[in-house]
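Field notebook, page 474. I keep forgetting to write these up properly, so this time I am using the form the group agreed on. The chain and the ligand, 6-phosphogluconic acid, are recorded exactly as supplied. Prediction of the bound pose follows.
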Amino acid sequence: MSGADIGLIGLGVMGRNLALNMADHGYRVAVHNRTQSVTDDVVGGFSGNDGGLTGCRSLAELVAAIRPPRPIVMMVKAGDPVDELIAAMRPHLEPGDIPIDAGNANFHNTIRRSAALKEAGFAYLGVGVSGGEEGARRGPSIMAGGPREAFQRVEPILNAIAAEYDGEPCAAWLGADGAGHFVKSVHNGIEYAEMQLIAEIYEIMRTAFAMRPADIGDVFGQWNQGPLESYLVEITAAILATEDAASGGPIIDVIVDKAGQKGTGRWTAIEALQLGLPAPSIDAAVVARVISARKADRLATEALYQTIDRPSGKPIDDAVIAMLEGALLGGRIAMYAQGFGLMAGASQTYGWDLPLSTIARIWRAGCIIRSRLLNPIAAAFAETPNLPNLFTATDLAGMMIHSHEAMRKTAALALAQGIPAPAQCSALAYFDGMRQGRSSAAMIQAQRDFFGAHSFKRTDRDGDHHGPWGGTDA
Ligand code: 6PG
């Protein structure tokens, strides 16, 4: 057959679920996996419409099965496997064909691949897909980048399989070459920061207030009915309500406290530093995962500092719960502010013209960071596309004025009791840094000039100036 609408290579959990999602929506999908038995299993297990999935034994067979110009989704591991697959597929492709990387890719690789494939006459799409296994199967959020005409060829398919919010598909073309993968990487940076923030709030309730996991889960469950409503808060409640059959206790207590990472959050933090844009809570979250992984180091160090007071473990009351709720909301706003600031800055550097309001809209369903807060964010960027930063949006400013006190008290409590809270503290420091009309950097400039004659600007005169540091041996 040669009538498939789209091809998909790589039938791991995400790839298989995307293929099934497309087939469920009436598309004919040619699929291929390096291990033939996996292809056979996926196609054999499909009980939907006839011709929905066609198993292909080779890349040549897969390409021949698709109606040109051929969109071919690659769902393989990021990095070399993508380059290797493109190289293997290329001899079979025709000009106009559309290879699509729908995995988590470093957007610099996507830019490089786009340029190389464009020269050969192909239209390369880099598409971020968020929502995990369930999202891929039932409706993810889809962030696409690459040539717009190529996107238009697959737009009906992507719209059909994407999550919906208020009847709007959570899929969009966001800009040229690496735009989609960059936005997905910022999504993951925010995801890391929020997960860390939630973990810190959990830890405060657990150790400073000696709450039981199930009770903390109830608190998260209640928060999920209000302004904090989000997928991550919802799953936190579910995790804390889960008992472990083997130990008979809460499952959270038998999970090893070392966080893994595939690298997407780290890419975002590195890019922010490269671009000179502030994303301190994303940095903090990446570093917290790295520290968590150093378990042996942590245990050895803990043994030396037994004399330092432990968290108090006193009973919690409603005022503290309200304080923690405010801290989580304020922290979340600060993290979105960093993520959107990063996208605004990168958009200029890379010439993408990223539609920030659309990005907030397509993050409202399907993706991991979906939350109620994305509504006012989408509205703010719709009203003022060049908003200097999210803290200046009226609705968000109202929320920050309401929550910053809670962030301060929570950070102070964590610091006083020795509970690490890098996400909360960095979010607060970012907010305070951004709201200082006059910062402490006059001192930095003076120091730079003192030891390095780097000069400084004056507040009252134009030009470059040096200090009267004479008489000192700098
Ligand atoms: C998503 C997720 C997804 C995945 C990442 C993060 O948006 O669906 O972000 O892409 O969970 O791989 O994983 P790490 O925590 O291992 O970086």
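OBSERVATIONS:
- The chain has three domains: 6-177, 185-434, 443-474.
- The chain has a mean pLDDT of 96.
FOLLOW-UP: compare against the apo run.
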